[in-house]
Amino acid sequence: MDGRVVAETLLSLQPRETEGAVAGVAPQRADPARSDDFAEEVTERQSVATGDWAVVRVDASGLYATLDDAADLRNDEYGYDLTVEEADVINRPPEEVPLEAITLVTDAENDRFFAVVDSGRLEVEQPYRATFTITDDNPYVADGEEESVSAVFRAVERSATIDAEEPVSIPPESVTVSGTTTVAPGTTLTVAATGEGGDAFLLTARPTVEADGSWSASMDFSDAEPGTPVTVEVLGFSRSVEGDVSGR
User: Fold this and answer.
1) Is the pLDDT assigned to residue 186 strictly greater than 70?
2) Over the chain, what is the mean pLDDT?
3) Where does the chain hold its CATH 2.60.40 domain(s)?
């Protein structure tokens, strides 16, 4: 405007980086199609219970104008290549998870993306390696160089334990029942205590799995008759403990 400066701003240009990859897990109920919420459900972990989501987080900047869906993770024009395949395989070629079985979740604001795999497609106890590579086909990678990061993870059986030895003696009051599980943190479990015989009862609680795989639930046995046989179990899992309600 007539040679006058009416506005100004500072634009800082930073070099793009490929910093690393980390294995993680997300609970069965999480939806990778809801990108805004999914990142909050991911916990760093190298084991994933069957039925949960296996997740590989890649920390890299300068990609997100060219990453729209999983097909873009193998793009010759930009030098992108993502593979998820069996690791430590002897005497045979490793089996690869097909790209169409991978869901892409981007988080451009935090310079990261998530490659998400349904763990039901993975062989239990078989390690897998996810590798993301950017070659010099990318205009921001120097000729003759490439950037590559990887993470290893494995699927495990879906299981839960209860921290109690049989026969368990339960006082007729409010008690804390606890244990551990292989399922993803954030999963809601259902714990049931069943009283049998003439003084039958059913108590339930719905604890949430913590980041370290532990869970705990408060259950009130104050109305239970002493001597009543009791079975405590995590529903959906084979593990249970038996005992009775102790005397007052």
Assistant:
1) yes
2) 91
3) 18-156, 160-245
Which helix (H) or strand (E) is 38 found in, with range?
helix 35-38
Q: Which amino acid is at 175?
A: V
CA gap 235, 35 in Å, rounded: 30
Q: b vs e for 39-56, b when ≥16 Cβ sit within 10 Å of the residue's Cβ? A: bebbbebebbbbebbbbb
pLDDT value at residue 7: 59
CATH of span 18-156: 2.60.40
- Residue 167: CB atoms within 10 Å: 11
Residue 143 predicted with pLDDT over 90: no
| Mean pLDDT of the 207-233 span | 96
CATH class name, domain 160-245: mainly beta
Look-up of token digits 């045979």: 92
Specify the pLDDT at position 95: 95
What's the rounded Cα separation, in Å, for the pair 113 and 9?
29
Residue found by looking up tokens 């069957």 in the block: 50
- The tokens of 211 are what? 């980041």
The 10 Å Cβ neighbour count of residue 119 is 25
Strand partners, 148: 133
Percentage of the chain modeled with pLDDT above 70: 93
